[in-house]
Amino acid sequence: MRRITRFATVGIASAALALSATACGKTSSDAASDSGDVKAAIAYDIGGRGDQSFNDAAYAGLSKAEKELDVKGTEAEPSDGEADADKVQRLTSLARAGNNPVIGVGFAYAPAIEKVAPKFPDTTFGLIDDSSVQGENIANLVFNEEEGSYLAGVAAAKVSKSKTVGFIGGVETPLIKKFQAGFEQGVKDTDSSVKVLSQYLTQPPNFDGFVKPDLGKAAAQGQLDKGADVIYAAAGLAGSGAIEAASKADKWAIGVDSDQYNQKGLAAYKDNILTSVTKDVSGAVFNLIKSVKDGDPQSSEIRYGLDKNGVGLAESNPAYTKMTEVTEAVAAAKKNIIDGKIVVKTTP
Questions:
Q1: Which of 24, 76, 225, 265 could pair with 43 in a Cys bridge, judged by C-beta atoms 3.0 to 4.6 Å apart?
Q2: Range of the domain at 199
């Protein structure tokens, strides 16, 4: 079994590692060749591993690479209230330790990768959910979240009996607005009489909306009180609170990023998780690691949409698969998006 080394934050020990590597004049590629091992690292977004969503999907890709590619994996957890400087130090330490690729999970790593990547030209840096920072050794792993969210909107409009559905965004950022835009468009294109209640949990620079389930639970309860019978939350760990609230009210929840019906931490609520908008983050992470190991590292923008099954709707809940009218409507919408007959908006 391959072993994963975990460290919670980058402090004095990591700084010492960086200094010792500099003193010896070694680059990341030197370190890798010394050990004879292929090593890859992922630095988690806010919430860390165990969020039952985005970060866990990235971990799944690393875990698959360990098993199938004989890669040694390292995970780096974020610290509470950290600044960009902390991310810079974390990525620097991972690169100096010989990891290649080094993958930042989430758009928050963009400023750090912009600073660190030029210092390690022989190391590939993966940046998930952001293409604003580019370079010869940067692979921008991005997704058409709006397309998957459109399909969720179709499903929500089809199953809603109250003609009211809800969208909860964790933090109001351009990325999460893509989820909102696609969902609202999918609902309205399917049934213009269905009302969509949309709200955000926090505003930048407060990112609690991605990590505090109680915020998601309270927001979902408010929407349920207003008659919503389907709630779609794009809010990371906070979304688990929304799923809990919907389940306890015996209404439908729609998960995000991972197939949340199959997440162990949400097992108590799975019967009420109609479907999930999936992003193949695990596949993107695995593909990047494989490309580096194969000697042909990915770079520039690698986009995953419906056409590549990079986004989509999970079909794990047997109740969902039995809803023929719903699944047929979703399948038709998917085809029309791929064929270009439906253009999904990226802003509400």
A1: 76
A2: 145-279+317-338
Please tell me the distance from the alpha carbon of residue 19 to that of residue 67, in angstroms, as a whole number.
32
Are 199 and 267 contained in the same domain? yes
Answering whether pTM is above 0.90, one says no
Measured CA distances, 114 to 118, 189, 309 (Å): 7, 40, 29
N residues, the chain: 348
Nearest CA to 32 among 156, 122, 141? 122
- Cα–Cα distance measured from residue 229 to residue 227, given in angstroms and rounded to the nearest whole number: 6
- Other CB atoms within a 10 A radius of the CB of residue 318 amount to 9
Tell me the helices (H) and strands (E) count for the chain, helix number first.
Answer: 12, 13
pLDDT in tens, the chain (348 residues): 333 434 433 333 333 333 233 333 333 334 443 445 789 999 998 888 988 788 999 999 999 999 999 999 999 998 877 788 999 999 999 999 999 999 999 999 999 999 999 999 999 999 999 999 999 999 999 999 999 999 999 999 999 999 999 999 999 999 999 999 999 999 999 999 999 999 999 999 999 999 999 999 999 999 999 999 999 999 999 999 999 999 999 999 999 998 999 999 999 999 999 999 999 999 999 999 999 999 999 999 999 999 999 999 999 999 999 999 999 999 999 999 999 999 999 999
